[in-house]
Amino acid sequence: METPGSQSSLHRANLERVVRAVRLAGSLTQAEIARTTGLSAATVSNIVRELKDGGTVEVTPTSAGGRRARSVSLSGDAGMVIGIDFGHTHLRVALGNLAHKVLAEESEPLDVDASAAQGFDRAERLVGKLIEATGVDRSKVAGVGLGVPGPIDVESGTLGSTAILPGWAGTKPAEELKERLGVPVHVDNDANLGALGELVWGSGRGVKDLAYIKVASGVGAGLVISGRIYRGPGGTAGEIGHITLDESGPVCRCGNRGCLETFAAARYVLPLLQSSHGSDLTMERVVALAREGDPGCRRVIADVGRHIGSGVANLCNLLNPSRVVLGGALAEAGELVLAPIRESVGRYAIPSAARQLSVLPGALGHRAEVLGALALALSEMGDSTLLDGSLTAAAPAFT
Ligand SMILES: [Zn+2]
């Protein structure tokens, strides 16, 4: 037993701080590690040497601000994480290592009428396929991040009602998959994972306060505050789609009237164009037509942007994020939707709340959620496992 406050327990705590900082960032220079952890440059240098000798980290020469520096990342073969994303039409799985390198990724169509058990079967099979294709050692898998398109009760892990996978309500997806895969599984909704994905790999790199707005069959936001996802005690934070824009507007699925969602989500927007553009229209098609110059589609996209901008302005007044990232199919519309968003923000947000804001399209497209699931697995895994080498000792029960 180590005595708390003793020399050896302090040293251990410092080791864990450095490993955690590198694990979350992917790679950092020694100076960045010192800044992130608050440890002195000399202490960081000693700890990095020790971790390198033990095979936990890799050190490669790099340059920072024109000066030579050493970039530290977790050793590529120290462990693996898996991301699984159940989207509204696809199941996506990615396999990555602890140095934030994506080693393999695959997706297949998912039938919305499929039962939860069928969905989990397919996820399990796809995970097995990626592990086999990359030849990685199954015992090195440290954890799984899982994305579902609906609200997750933070305490019980139960999936709430979701319009996208209606048969799945009431299931406990993380528990179910943990039983099948034999490793810890961490679950979150698609908007939060999109935010994490863009934060770690995409348009949110380098910022600590970010909102990721996803417009699809609904409108949701994933909020990152001071570098962490903010979920709220019930996991409901970020329901930007139900901000009231017009009290006497259309009735929303939540029972309220004139929510942002009723002015921006596909199910409300597509009918506006169906009499002129045909009934089999999708949001992807509207975006493509708008880019080709179709005036009706351009008008609809611009209106959607203006309304989203009102919601973003409210968000700015409350949270003062430095970046808003627009995800989903709508992001493909580029300036056709981003300019009206910025215009509304300029009109409705108080100037000081929007001064440092940049509104950008997501960089990851449909991969944002599955990469966010990888980031979730990376952020939730403990460092003691890594430092003790028990990742290899306790082989998980993959079949
Ligand atoms: Zn609503």
Automatic annotation (TrEMBL):
It holds the Pfam family MarR_2. It comes from the Bacteria. Residues 18-68 form the HTH marR-type domain. InterPro entries: ATPase_NBD (IPR043129), HTH_MarR-typ (IPR000835), ROK (IPR000600), ROK_cs (IPR049874), WH-like_DNA-bd_sf (IPR036388), WH_DNA-bd_sf (IPR036390). Belongs to the ROK (NagC/XylR) family. This is Transcriptional regulator. It comes from Streptomyces lasiicapitis.
